[in-house]
Amino acid sequence: MAKTVHIKTYGCQMNAYDSGRMADVLAPLGYRTTEVVEGADMVILNTCHIREKAGEKVFSDLGRLRPLKQAREAAGAAMTIVVAGCTAQAEGEELRRRAPIVDVVVGPLAYHRLPELVAQAVRQGGGVLDTDMPAEPKFDALPAQSARPGVSAFLTVQEGCDKFCSFCVVPYTRGAEYSRPVAEIVDEARHLLDLGAREIVLLGQNVNAYRGAATDGTSWSLGRLIERLAELPGLSRLRYTTSHPLDVDDALVAAHRDVPALMPFLHLPVQSGSDRILAAMNRRHDAATYLRVIERLRKAQPALAFSSDFIVGFPGESERDFQATMALVREVGFAQAFSFKYSARPGTPAANLDLRIDDATATARLHALQAQLWQDQEAFNRAQVGRVLPVLIDGPGRHSGQVHGRSPYMQAVHAEASTVEPGTMVAMRIVEGRLNSLVGEPAAPPAAAAA
Questions:
Q1: Euclidean distance between CA atoms 189 and 194, whole angstroms
Q2: Whole-model pTM?
Q3: Nearest-10 crossing angle of helices 13-26, 114-124
Q4: Most exposed of 7, 138, 202, 226 (fewest Cβ within 10 Å)?
Q5: For 259-296, what is each residue's pLDDT tens digit?
Q6: What domains can be seen in the chain, in order of their start residue?
Q7: CA distance 103 to 81
């Protein structure tokens, strides 16, 4: 008898990938996914622990699930509640204490064991916890993806991080760096393309630290992997995220120069422009090193645009430190960026630092930074006006007669056009650049558009 599972995903693209794989693991047990939480036989919250609000949102959502679970039980049915992901890994015991309605708590390296964990929870009435970091990689136990991925598909190639930035929980929730074997990645990419994907986004907590074993006994870098994946029939575009500046090697720079399928858009977090704060963050690079990496990449691929991550209000950040960040932002000119106020994560070294920045100061700095970032983003979008860009259509737009797609720079592009099948590459002349999107018009029939 068919059962339903509702999966809510918080946070990063790797969580989105993991949510899809959890659905694959449960499919042999008769579970099909549903967008409706009411009446679901199972609810999975796939959580994030990067910032405090992300963790607290989980408990808020669990509070909303309590009456739904009670109503199901009153009707003689059941609702199994699973908390997965990084909050589960970091706060497993606390989750069981604060939210006894949770039946299973499972970390991001153990979700391939979901079927047996759910069975155990049914037998003992909940309270199952699995936050182990097993020696065997979870990918060995995962079935092939069954659901159609859409035009753009995520593919995790690397997991974990060995950098230990002082503000970050990833090494503690995702473990040490692990790179999947080349052949395994190529097979999964080929499978995603067979299911209809045209763009593949390679994922990793530190994706450009990828060092995967090849069948000839050598170790491949991300750049070489990209070259191999670009040879697959049916692949139009490749992207990767998230990278560390210190792991941008010559092979990756060359891939940006030589591989047409690799899009000219790179997310390269810097976090701060102050050398003093970068040292306190244990980023292992200074601002000048970061700018040299940008220069190397732009020299190899002049069309390359960048996005980044920024944290303001890090403990001890002075006004001079903040102005160094502003100077770096103005020098690079980011096409997009993500910026946040510092949020202390329990168990990280930065959580024990003194010299906390008061919230009013941190908020003012965040607003100033975002004003500059949004100005640069809008300027970049407006600079596309008059250009003809290849736009990968992913579906209809919000309005009748409109299509939606993505430019090579990850910009949303809307256009008035007759129905165009998702996965079609259309040459679009950009007629308007907005803060968060572009407006285009077909410059040629879809069959004549450049890939």
A1: 9
A2: 0.87
A3: 70
A4: 138
A5: 999 999 999 999 999 999 999 999 999 999 999 999 99
A6: 3-130 (3.40.50.12160), 139-312 (3.80.30.20), 388-448 (2.40.50.140)
A7: 5
